[in-house]
């Protein structure tokens, strides 16, 4: 059973940087845990804290910005396949990541953890950043059932794509393994070939 | 209409295909290691599930292991616990484990091919993005997340949507001093770190064809660095000769049967690709990266691009990247002083890499101001290097041969580059902090790294070598 996701309206945390790789999201030295919990403390660790553990000038340390939606520059989640990146983002408290482009493996990992990756156009991404920097209380509304993201203050909208199967999994909390195991006879037939 | 190589292999592994659902794809071998598997085993235990096909799962310890004095217990407690957890999980679920001290231990993407587990036409996954390496054999191989590791353990299958297909051709004769690593760094520099996202990439052309199996693995290894789902190269005599006779390769009649199938594995003349790119081998110089993603690479004689010449929306990230690296707009890379050299990783730690570096280092010494780590990719590579006397050559150059593991590629073990220091590295990622908090990485080929080890600076290998020295 995965986490159920249908709809979120929230303020956002803006991170207008391109090519954010999973080593930034969660550095390798924090991958030594053998459970899925607690990674949020180390989300963007080296951008949040210096080597003396002092907070740096970084958006997660900025009281102005908070919310359940992380908005980032294009090619978010590139690099290592570590699912710990998705776990860290979820554990920190985000339900949605918005970007104009996602790396494949990250996108899959996010969907498997009830974290919705919303891919928007470059123009719409720029509009979100503009609205948030003008007013940090700007909210966005993410409606998975209708596949629409809206900037609440201006009403500007864009639709987004999601694989129909993964959408059903998120809305109903389905598990991939149950789905595959419903093909047990086909798997055995394949192996017998 | 003809089929691409990718589609032939994919179709041969589809267990179920339904409109509106991803395909259920059968996985021939699942490689696992200590970092991305513990939560998957936990998931199985919680759900009361078994590993469906333990004999199709291969485990090793590589990311966390020290590369010095491996016979001693791992000092770092969490690393030791993670490796022990894998050993325990393998025992509980009946999986073969090539742990420390085992003659087959090594970096997961080095041991699969060298043991003859990786073969043409197969499907391979691992909770590690550099699984694309195995595509060099004409196979579908890609990295997966831990939820998917659990999925494959439980079902020997993976839910996957078919990616688009891209062909990247490289034709012509490589300049002297230029190798497989330079080819792939060049391609990524041309199409960016996101240029392959959503695609399975087939590398083709006579330059690719002329590469050894190990060179092909280097190319496919870095497919993920342009975002590609996987990279693959049609198998040929080079491939078959490499696989033949290896520990787990098919033998006798099985071999003949396998070979007959493997010979059908190529993209048909009229196969359609969603995208085709073409490059000239003559345009490729020895490469070096200057920034914080693998797409930020240039020929070693070139200048760092100026921020004003970068796309307006990316100038902020670009300037941050140069600041992190301590480099200026228009700076010449040649002559830049460095502190560390790392020769190793799943990209460049095979026996040919070590031979090439040893050949260059013979009669030379490392620069006094540089720390150099040469780390074999596996126990078998290490033993081969010792049998050939390469360890003596390294020693004479002031470089002890270390023991196998991922080492300084990712700062999970004891081999870390200190803050602010520069490392010329044969690994695959130059991300911020990748080799240690605030470390600075210049990605390059083994030869360019070896040249830097000798001079203590970023160096054009072609200035140190006569062409005849590199041949053979």
How do the strands and helices of this protein lay out in sequence?
The complex is a heterodimer of chains A (193) and B (472).
Chain A (H helix, E strand, L loop, with lengths): L6 E9 L6 H4 L19 H4 L20 E4 L11 H9 L3 E4 L4 H8 L4 E4 L2 H13 L4 E5 L4 E4 L5 E3 L4 H9 L3 H6 L2 H9 L1
Parallel strand pairs in A: 1-2, 2-3, 3-4
Antiparallel strand pairs in A: 1-5, 5-6, 6-7
Chain B lengths: L4 H7 L2 E3 L6 E4 L2 E4 L5 H10 L9 E4 L16 H17 L2 E3 L9 H7 L8 E4 L13 E4 L2 H10 L1 E4 L3 E8 L8 H12 L7 E6 L1 H4 L3 H9 L8 E3 L4 H7 L8 H11 L12 E6 L6 E3 L7 E3 L15 H11 L14 E4 L7 H11 L9 E4 L4 H9 L2 H7 L25 E4 L14 E4 L2 H10 L5 H4 L2 H4 L2
Parallel strand pairs in B: 3-4, 3-6, 4-5, 6-7, 9-10, 9-12, 10-11, 15-16, 15-17, 17-18
Antiparallel strand pairs in B: 1-2, 2-8, 13-14
Helix pairs in contact in B: 2-5, 6-8, 12-14, 12-15
Indicate the structural class of chain A: alpha/beta
Bin the strand percentage of chain A. Answer: 15-25%
Number of strands of chain A: 7
Radius of gyration of chain A: 18 Å
In what order do the strands lie side by side in the largest sheet of chain B?
A: 5-4-3-6-7
Structural class by secondary-structure content of chain B: alpha/beta
Low-pLDDT residue intervals, each spanning 5 or more residues of chain A: none
Oligomer: heterodimer
Largest sheet of chain B: 5 strands, parallel
State the order of secondary-structure elements of chain A, H for helix, E for strand. Answer: EHHEHEHEHEEEHHH
Overall 3D geometry of chain B?
globular
Count every helix of chain B, treating DSSP H or I runs of 4 or more residues as helices: 17
* Average pLDDT rating of chain A: 96
Q: Which pair of chains has the greatest number of interface residues, and how are they split between the two chains?
A: A-B, 52 and 66 residues
Q: What do these coordinates show?
A:
The complex is a heterodimer of chains A (193) and B (472). With 193 residues, chain A is α/β, with parallel strands linked by helices. Chain A has 8 helices and 7 strands. Chain A has helices spanning 22-25, 45-48, 84-92, 104-111, 122-134, 164-172, 176-181, 184-192; strands spanning 7-15, 69-72, 96-99, 116-119, 139-143, 148-151, 157-159. Chain A has a 7-stranded mixed β-sheet with strand order 4-3-2-1-5-6-7. In chain A, strand 2 (69-72), helix 3 and strand 3 form a beta-alpha-beta unit. The longest helix of chain A is centred in the middle third of the chain and has 13 residues, at 122-134. The radius of gyration of chain A is 18 Å and the shape is globular. The two termini of chain A are 32 Å apart. With 472 residues, chain B is of the alpha/beta class. In chain B, 32% of the residues lie in helices and 16% in strands. In chain B, strands 5-4-3-6-7 form a 5-stranded parallel β-sheet. A 4-stranded parallel β-sheet of chain B has the order 11-10-9-12. In chain B, helix 12 crosses helix 14. The longest helix of chain B has 17 residues, at 77-93. The mean pLDDT of chain B is 97. Chains A and B meet through helix 4, helix 7 and helix 8 of A and helix 2, helix 3, helix 5 and helix 11 of B.
């Amino acid at each position: 059973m995965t986490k159920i996701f249908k709809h979120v309206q929230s303020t956002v945390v803006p991170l207008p940087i391109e090519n954010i790789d999973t080593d930034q999201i969660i550095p390798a030295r924090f991958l030594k845990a053998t459970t899925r919990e607690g990674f949020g403390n180390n989300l963007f660790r080296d951008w949040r804290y210096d080597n003396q553990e002092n907070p740096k000038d970084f958006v997660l340390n900025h009281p102005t910005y908070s919310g359940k939606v992380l908005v980032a520059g294009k090619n978010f989640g590139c690099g290592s396949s570590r699912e710990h990146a998705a776990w860290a983002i979820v554990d920190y408290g985000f339900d949605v990541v918005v970007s104009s482009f996602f790396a494949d493996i990250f996108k899959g990992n996010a969907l498997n953890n009830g974290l919705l990756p919303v891919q928007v156009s470059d123009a719409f991404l720029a509009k979100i950043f503009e609205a948030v920097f003008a007013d940090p209380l700007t909210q966005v509304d993410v409606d998975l059932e209708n596949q629409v993201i809206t900037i609440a203050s201006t009403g500007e909208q864009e639709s987004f794509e999601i694989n129909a199967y993964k959408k059903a999994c998120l809305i109903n909390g389905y598990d991939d393994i149950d789905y595959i195991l419903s093909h047990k006879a086909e798997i055995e037939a394949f192996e017998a070939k | 209409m003809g089929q691409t190589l990718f589609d032939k292999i994919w179709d041969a592994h589809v267990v179920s295909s339904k409109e509106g659902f991803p395909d259920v794809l059968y996985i021939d071998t699942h490689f696992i290691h200590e970092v991305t598997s513990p939560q998957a085993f936990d998931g199985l235990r919680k759900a009361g599930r078994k590993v469906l096909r333990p004999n199709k799962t291969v485990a090793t310890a590589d990311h966390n292991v020290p590369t010095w004095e491996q016979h001693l217990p791992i000092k770092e407690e969490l690393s030791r616990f993670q490796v022990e957890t894998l050993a325990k999980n393998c025992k509980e679920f009946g999986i073969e484990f090539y742990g420390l001290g085992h003659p087959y231990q090594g970096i997961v993407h080095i041991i699969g091919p060298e043991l003859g587990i990786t073969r043409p036409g197969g499907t391979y996954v691992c909770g590690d993005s550099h699984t694309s390496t195995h595509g060099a054999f004409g196979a579908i191989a890609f990295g997966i997340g831990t939820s998917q590791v659990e999925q494959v353990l439980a079902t020997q299958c993976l839910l996957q949507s078919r990616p688009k297909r891209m062909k990247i051709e490289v034709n012509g004769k490589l300049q002297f001093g230029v190798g497989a690593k330079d080819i792939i760094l060049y391609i990524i520099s041309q199409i960016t770190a996101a240029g392959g996202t959503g695609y399975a990439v087939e590398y083709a052309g006579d330059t690719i064809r002329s590469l050894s199996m190990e060179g092909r693995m280097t190319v496919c290894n870095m497919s993920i660095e342009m975002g590609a789902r996987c990279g693959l190269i049609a198998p040929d005599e080079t491939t078959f000769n490499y696989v033949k006779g290896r520990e787990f390769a098919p033998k006798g009649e099985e071999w003949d049967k396998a070979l007959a199938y493997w010979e059908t594995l190529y993209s048909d003349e009229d196969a359609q690709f969603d995208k085709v790119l073409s490059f000239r081998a003559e345009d490729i110089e020895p490469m070096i990266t200057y920034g914080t993603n693998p797409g930020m690479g240039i020929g070693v004689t070139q200048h760092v691009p100026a921020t004003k010449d970068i796309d307006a929306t990316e100038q902020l990230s670009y300037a941050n990247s140069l600041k992190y690296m301590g480099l200026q707009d228009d700076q010449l890379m040649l002559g830049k002083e460095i502190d560390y050299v790392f020769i190793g990783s799943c990209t460049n730690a095979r026996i040919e890499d070590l031979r090439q570096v040893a050949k260059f280092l013979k009669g030379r010494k490392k620069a006094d101001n540089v720390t150099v780590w040469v780390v074999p990719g596996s126990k078998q590579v290490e033993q081969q290097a010792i049998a050939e006397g390469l360890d003596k050559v390294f020693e004479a150059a002031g470089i002890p041969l270390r023991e196998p593991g991922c080492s300084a590629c990712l700062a999970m073990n004891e081999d870390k580059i200190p803050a602010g220091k520069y490392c010329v590295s044969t690994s695959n990622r130059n991300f911020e902090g990748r080799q240690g908090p605030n470390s600075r990485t210049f990605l390059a080929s083994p030869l360019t790294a070896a040249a830097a080890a000798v001079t203590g600076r970023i160096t054009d290998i072609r200035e140190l070598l006569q062409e005849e020295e590199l041949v053979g």
